[in-house]
Amino acid sequence: MIKKIGVENFRVFKDYTEFEIRPITLLVGPNNSGKSSFTKLLLLLKNGIETLNFEKGNHNLESFDKVINWESDSDNLKLIFKNLVPFLDDSYQIEFSYENRCINKLVIFKNKKEPLLKIEISEEEIYYQHQNLSYYNGIIAEFDIRQLIDVVYNKEIQVRQWHKFGKQIFSYGYISLASLKVDNKITLTEFKNLHTDDPANKLSNMVIDTLKNKAIYNEIENFNKDYLLFKVLKNDVDITASFVDKILSIQQESFKMNSSDLFINIDYDGLFNTFKKSFHWFKREITTNTYKYFKNLFADDKIDVQISELGKFIFNEKIYGNNDYFNTYVIN
Predict the structure, then answer these.
(1) Rounded distance, CA 222 to CA 167, Å?
(2) What's the pTM value of the predicted model, to 2 decimals?
(3) Edge-to-edge strands of the sheet including 256-259?
(4) Alpha-carbon distance 68 to 46, whole Å?
(5) 138: which of 274, 281, 299, 305 lies 20 to 30 Å off by Cα?
(6) What are the respective helix, strand and coil percentages of the chain, to the nearest 5?
(7) What is the C-alpha R_g of the chain?
């Protein structure tokens, strides 16, 4: 659920202006203060976030050029959403920058000076358009992997929590993993075995999510806080401890991407796919770059790059892949 929307360079909003959103929201202010502009913006966004569609809807906005603030020297429109970032808790925000009604930059941040993720796209590099979605290649992306690992260590991850209403109706929302109270020591391996040991034992969605949250919490508690996603073996002997700084340096540099091989779309659902596809790309880059460095250093030795427990969690658990917000189920 979106809690805040910020806007800059849209009609009367030349400077950045932020609005808190609640189930019932009242806009109060004098004439020409922006009430109508913000309402029109919401109507425009109903058509989709990724490409601003001025032909559809009741917003009566003519074109991208007409909504840019008339006193501004910039041709870019910026929108910032709080609590719209996949898998992250609501301390993180996402900024979309638009040029000629299409996104040209996406930034996810907690501290704006140190973004977690930055993706830049050139308008010339739109691969194709289909059903009001633009698919891009040639993107430039950069993850601050140390900050992402801190997100994991600090449990700043959104997880699903259920609430009971009446006898059988349950609904769920998302809360920060750090706020959970965990009363048992179930591991992720034990949780996964619940599904394979007895296929006939079908657990409710509520029980599955509750156990999974506890397992994730316990898994993070048991991590070595070394930030290492991979370890290096030379002739089957672990040499990681002697090269921690170098491995971390390779790791950070590998989380930069300038590639024409990755095609993505950046509507809200596409943002999840962006995480999935880019993480696959980054994992390959780290493995390749780490192997090359150590093979050059020890040319006559056998080198093996293996994923760490932290790496397995970030790359394999797909904590960034859940996109089923705020539905209601009947549990039998």
Answers:
(1) 37
(2) 0.76
(3) 17-20, 4-8, 76-82, 93-99, 102-109, 117-120, 139-143, 256-259
(4) 19
(5) 305
(6) 35, 30, 40
(7) 23
